[in-house]
Structure formats: structure tokens, C-alpha cells
Amino acid sequence: MTVLYNLCDIFDNLCQQTTLSLPPLKHNYLKIEFENSDNNETVYHGQAPTLPFAASEVYDVPMCNWRHLTVEHADCKAVYEVTFDISSTNLSFCPGDTIGLIPKNLDAEVDFVIDHLDLTSIVDCSYTITVDHGQKGARTPAHVPVKSRLRHVLTHCVDIRAVVKKLFLLALSRYTKDEREKMVLEYLCSKEGSPAYTTHILNKNLCILDLFAIFKTCKPPIEVVLEHLPRLLPRPYSIVNSALANSNLLKICFSVMNIGNNRKGLVTGWLEQIIKEPSLEDLITNINLKDDKVTLVHKVPIYLRKNINQFSFPEVCTSPLLLIGPGTGVAPYIGLLEQKEYQGNKDLGMIWLFFGCRNPNLDFIYKKELENFVSKGVLNKLTTSFSRWEGCNSKKYIQESILQNGEEVSKLLKEGAKVYICGNVRTMAAQVKETLVKCLVEYTSNTQEEAEKFISNLQKNKRYLVDSWN
Questions:
Q1: Bridge partners of residue 108, in order along the sequence
Q2: Are the C-beta atoms of residues 254 and 237 closer than 8 Å to each other?
Q3: Do residues 237 and 101 touch, judged by C-beta distance below 8 A?
Q4: What's the mean pLDDT in 25-35?
Q5: In terms of Cα–Cα distance, which of 96, 94, 98 is closest to 343?
Q6: Is the pLDDT of residue 287 over 70?
Q7: Is the overall model pTM greater than 0.70, yes or no?
Q8: Which residues, including other chains, have CB under 8 Å from residue 24's CB and lie 6 or more apart?
Q9: pLDDT of residue 440 exceeding 90
Q10: Helical ranges in 277-366 per DSSP H
């Protein structure tokens, strides 16, 4: 693991000069016992954790195709489209639906934890977990099996990349031999060190992988780690295509970016690795012999998610649709337009798409498809924004494009248009809402309060739908 900076050097003097207010420490309440056994069963206390918003069972589906949607360039995030063969499943989906993709922690990162905690001799042994019921509220975390093997749990059950919370830091400090390292961990979880925790832990997404690399004498019992690590959760992805065109194929697209600390996204990095550099494990476990040919078939565990946001498109609708989505936020709209084209360009009213990216020459994903939809009248209007292109006019961002077309947008809203927004909840989605309110204030008789209420009513009546992520 790469140590990005030394927290001990940053806070050494401060820790020695400050009286710390520490949160109350809960004592370790899990006890784990190992045995040499051939038993590979995984047993939970009660039911196994359910999959979030599951609308189907889990299927291991082969990745049958992929393509690079962006140009390979230093100023451009890589965006890929992958296609899964779902012919052996009973999955049925519509535009706007999403799948959950079940991840696993990277072998190298799991091995790092195993090595750091000196677990090599027992990591593949069967274990049994018991609880000290003398402590109030003591229980085994629902996502941690009471019987299993540590390698399985560290790979599939707990999120070793989760940002470390303050109580976990305090627990870790109790198993840190170096007094200097211990003081820094205590400072970071104290009331006095709260700004430092936000700056150096929360904002930098530090996890136990980073802490074990920085605080080398911090070696907690595995019970403490299992008590505090959260569940490794599935990742949701919008479905790109329409099942009407081919019900045996399911497509998703995703961007690959550095999330900090020299890491890529857990799932997106894994999928990219499958595409670019299949591992030896892939070669051994996913090889397929058929018709005297050797092919590599990568299987990925997925399931269909319930459409809890009701981000779905009407089968028959004469009202206009305003589609707003930068980057990979365009994904669900490709499926809608593909379905409309398959149905013969009927039963839907005007469709207007606002799309944004950095540079049309680098990351304008699905450009050919969108231009084809426009030429065939499937997509009635396409308005683009390019935030980092010298040839761009004043419309650098989607919200600026909306405002520039504010009069027509306001008119469509008043005439009953439905609004769909797909993108980053922290920035774009909120800004688009503010922009639509501005349009209504400027181009209709609405006051600020009336415009805000109008948008709120659209949301209540399911005419303003958001599919967003962090």
C-alpha cells in the first residue's frame, strides 16, 4: 500500500499539547474461534442479508461484449459500455430500470489486511463467532456470518474501503503499540480533532487499508475489525438498452475514475481490469471450451432492482419529455429512444434531451446514436453543453443551456411536460432544479415562491423524476 502522507508528522506536536475529549469506548464483544475443518459453509445469525431493492434473484451472467465510449486521453475519464448475455435468465426490464452488480474486494487489498494482521495461518480455517451478551446491545453485525472463513468474509461481506468512523479510530488506538501513533488516532476521533478528522479522514476517503499503511503498529484483533466494518453493498447501474430490440442482451455503461489514494472504483476498476488485463484467476475459472475453440467468458453477478424512484417512461404519452443527463447520466435515455425507434416512432410526444460533457472530441458518449435518433425523428431536439472545450459558446453547463432555452422550456412545463434528471445528486440535480425555477420566474407570471411550488407539485405528481447518485 502507498502511504500518501504521514499523519503522525502532521499532528505530533498538537496531540501532545491538547487535552482530548474522547467518545466512550465500547469493549470488544465478539469472540471468534478457529478450527481446522473442511467445512466451507457460511451461516448467519438468522437470515442472510437481503439484497437492497431486489426484484429478481442473482444471476451470474457472461460479459459477451464491450466497447470504449470515450477517447483514450489524459484529460478524459474512461467510459465503457459492457453487454451481458442474459438469455439463461428470466430477467425482464424496461427503460429506466437498474441492475445491482455484486462486488468483491480486490485480492491484493484483502491480502494486505491478512498480512498486516498476521492472519495467514488461520484465514482459510473455519471459524465460529460468539457474542458477549453481558454488554448491552451486543450482537453480531447482520452482514457478518457467525460461521464461515475469514478470507470469504474479507472478500465478500465487509467493505474494507469504507471511510473509517471515529469510534473505529478509537478502538484501533487501543491496539496500537507505538505511543505516537496511538496519540494521533485518539486526536482524530476526539472532539478537539473533529476538523482534522473531516479534512484528513473523511474528505480523503481514508479506510483501514490506508490506516494500516500509515499506523504500522496498529494491529487490532480481527473481532474488532468485523465489529466496525460496514457491509459490502451492491452497486446500481442504469440499463442502457431496450429489451424490445433484443431481450437476451443487457447493457450498462460506466466511467472509471481515480477516487483517491491511487484507487479506482471497486466495481468499475474490476470491470475495466476484466476488459483490459484478465487475471490468471479469470483465465482459469472463466475459460470456455466449445466447438474446439478456447474462449474467455467473464461472469458477473447481477440482479434486477426495484424501480423505487419510479424513474420509468410512459408507454403511451402525448406530453413532452424533457430529458436531462450529463455524461453517463444519458444511459437510461438511450434505452428509451431505442425502444421508441423499435416501436416505430409513435405513442410518445416531443422528446428533448439536454446532454453535457467536457469535450465533444473526447467524451461525447453515444454521439452517433443520438445523432441517428435525431435524424430519424425519434429524438426531436438535442441540446449539448461542453464544459472544457475552447470552441464552446456560453452554454458550458447543462443548467446554462436550459436557461438559454428558458422560454420554450417554461412553456413546455406549463403544457404538462414530464422532467427526467439523471446524474450527480450533490451538484447537477440541485442546480437543474434551481435553473428551472429561474426559467419559470423569468418567462411566466410566477413569483419565486410560486415557481418553487410549481416544481414541488411536479415532483409530487411524478412529473419530475430524478435518478441520482453520489
A1: none
A2: yes
A3: yes
A4: 87
A5: 94
A6: no
A7: yes
A8: none
A9: yes
A10: 280-285, 331-342
